[in-house]
Amino acid sequence: MTKLRPPLSFESALAKVAGQIGWDTIARMFGKSERTVRAWSETEIPASVTMDKALALDAAYAAAGGDGAPFLSVYALRLQADTIAAQACSEELARKTVAAIKEGGEAHAALVAATRPGATEAERAIAEKEVVEAVDALTNTLATLRAGRRNDVHHGGPS
Q: Rounded to an integer, what distance in angstroms lies between the CA atom of residue 24 and that of residue 14?
């Protein structure tokens, strides 16, 4: 039975290489037991293939007639996806920053109007509303900034 492994994972790349050259060949390449190299393909086991081993495995895969380079493909696609996500995070942060600046400017203008002699209750209510909107916009911007630092920004509709 073929074990299911996550797509775009190094574990699935290793299984693909092993399908072409064999687990025994991989074990001999690195002076390890077959059990050890099979463990590298298990997502539940915290062992993994080093970059040097991945390079050697991609070369062995190609030498055995395999098409492409499984480890390079996984690495390149994941890097591209992560880069796109980082750019999207930066764009989201920029969008929220613009909103925070706009709301802050409106709050400042309303506060100035509310502090003038003879300011009405309506002007004070508008200032209060604008300050709340500015605080909300800054809070959303802060949340996006922190999420980007933790790398868990969720994209989609407005927040």
A: 13
Give me the mean pLDDT over the 38-48 stretch. 87
* C-beta atoms surrounding 134 within 10 Å: 22
Tokens of 152: 């868990």
DSSP string, 55-85: HHHHHHHHHTT-SS-HHHHHHHHHHHHHHHH
Structure tokens that stand for 9 in this block: 């994972």
- Label residue 121 by pLDDT band (50, 70, 90): very high
Which residues lie closer than 8 Å to 137 by C-beta, 6 or more apart?
96, 99, 100, 102, 103, 104
